[in-house]
Amino acid sequence: MTAATPRSEKAKMLAGELYDPGDTELRADRLRARALCQALAAADPFDTQRRTQLLATLFGRPVAAGVTPPFFCDYGYNIELGAGSYFNFNCVILDVAAVRIGRHTLCGPGVHIYTATHPMDAVQRRSGLESGRPVVIGDDVWLGGGAIVCPGVTIGSGSVIGAGSVVTRDVPAGVFAAGNPCRVIRPV
Which of 11, 64, 140, 157 is deepest in the core (most CB within 10 A)? Predict the structure, then answer.
């Protein structure tokens, strides 16, 4: 009987399990994403072919969405952008888990989307291990400038999130929600 091959830290990360972010493969993946984000920021804004190529390389697939640099992410390959979606200046996506963003979704300047999370227990947190929970944002959503979307959140299609909101739990479709913590204000 042969022993099972230990799972890589990347496999653990992608499965939503505790993993070591200091792993050599993950560190190299993050540096790759940083280099691509930096290249995107340095690219001629009129060279749409180069910018489109950089985004396809960063996300691992062709992208029919707009991203205004500077833009920052951990890996890129865990981000799925719907056609016609748009990220304004200074957006950040910590994509240790999947981030799925629907079609025609708008992200104002400084929007942050986090999937990374750490253990609540201080002793376990000291180990340096972390995990992630996916974020899903539907079609035709508008995230106002400076909004923060926390790990594990789903935002329904057609909703509007007010500027500066901190979204800590799911938001249904077709509502205006705002605040810290973000709460539903009214239907749109």
Answer: 140
